[in-house]
Amino acid sequence: MKLLQQGRGAGFLAAVDAGKRASADLLDCVLHDPRWDRQVESRDDYYAQLLLATDTNIDAVHRFILEEGREADDADFWLPIGVLAEMSRRGSASANDAMAEAVTTGAQWRSCLDALDAAGGLDLVRQVVSVEAVKTLMSRVGVNEIADAVELVAAPWESWAEQVPALRFVISGNKSGRALEPRRLSGNVAWAASRLLKPEIPDDLAALTTESLLLLSATSGAASEVAKELARRTDPKSLRLLVTAVELGTPGERNVALRALGRQGSTEFVAAAEEFLRRASTLALTEGRENQRRIGFVRYLEELPPAVSLPLARTWFFEAWPLALAAQHILARHAASDDRPMLEAAGAAALESSDMYRLCSVVDALATAGPDDSLPFLAEVYEQAPYSWARRRVVGAMGRCHITGAADRYLEEALWDCEPESRKLACRAIGKSTNFPLARIRELASDPYEEDFVGEAARGALERK
Questions:
Q1: What are the pLDDT digits (tens) for 443-462?
Q2: What count of other Cβ atoms lies within 10 Å of the Cβ of residue 456?
């Protein structure tokens, strides 16, 4: 049961081997979300595949989603709905029926649409949701809620509107620029990913003036590339503009300027960063502006050369947050072998106290310092951490080991892990061993429902073999 709750590959294989005997445990996981962080951890497709492989009856999940009177947070429904959406994507007729009824009559109709959109886009929504379902939905849901869904969910709204007159009014209102009250995303981060657009960044950033680059920092997702280009600007005028941006610019301008100055090795703002982070440890950083300033200073410090930043990180590592946070970021980039005892001790404490974010940073730092001597600790994290993103980092660290065969058991298991990133990293590590199950690699390479980057990594592994 614990392996299934963690989303481990060993849990996947054991459930497949057990068949219907695993059904009760699988349903318990789906109905009582075991994830340490519901916002980011992947379980939808993991449990969906297992429910299908074990031919588990999903009536209990169907009933759970339709219960409107129960006292529960919306987040309690994310996993059951996400699992059914992934089952629908993989061709499950029973999941299609359950999701269709949940959209038609259930209180969680919007979360169901979001999950179907994230799992398979417009085609899957069209496959599951009928015109009759939309008619019923329109009769019981407010116009603003429908308008918000039309704005954000990929669905055949125009086609439906041909047979649902009330929907034409909503679509017309949206196109006319009618003011809407935006609804927060009804699911986790994975559901939002399908809606994220790549930032519109000019192809030739080098051709832009420093002033234009700073203005471009307001474009969502552009900060990293803008900061890289600004770091190349070392002429006196650009340096003055960067310093001015730190002192007087918008939060976005300040943050990219700080990252650029850090890359250049400028220590001009080290004292200011420490002063702010030390003061922030006594405050509740809830204001957006203060949060942005913290992020900017942490990014600046981690961009500095290790000769400057590592001594600071070692001093701050056991200080209060966010000084400790800055130290963790720096060590994740620049930790040396001498830091290993300190990191392992801190990691053990974080694992014991379930401080998963600190544990993740420690694992990243150990990977940087050289993971071979830390394999026993990394194996403990792999086996015990309730957070699948911590295990994902362990897989990445183990993939960098130089001791042939020492981590093979865990890397092989990771080929069935719930996290697609773990599966990708395991595929990339295959070149170091001849013992990997090629059948599984071929399965990942050819699975049309697998993440593209996992399939690509699997095909690369096959080519290396």
A1: 999 999 999 999 999 999 88
A2: 15
75 CB-near residues (< 8 Å, 6+ apart): 33, 38, 188
Q: What is the pLDDT of residues 49-87, one digit of tens each?
A: 999 999 999 999 999 998 865 566 788 899 999 999 999
Q: Which residues contact 160 (CB under 8 A, 6 or more apart)?
A: 131, 134, 167
Q: Which residues contact 304 (CB under 8 A, 6 or more apart)?
A: 262, 265, 267, 270, 330
Contact criterion met (CB below 8 Å) for 42 and 48: no
Q: What are the residue ranges in the chain where pLDDT is below 70?
A: 68-72, 173-187, 189, 192-199, 283-289, 404, 431-435, 465
Distances (CA, A) of 316 to 158, 189, 301: 57, 31, 12
Q: What angle do CA 30, 33, 34 make, to 5 degrees?
A: 115
**Environment class of 70 (CB within 10 Å of its CB; exposed 0-12, middle 13-18, buried 19+):** exposed
Question: Within a 10 A sphere around the Cβ of 356, how many other Cβ atoms?
Answer: 18
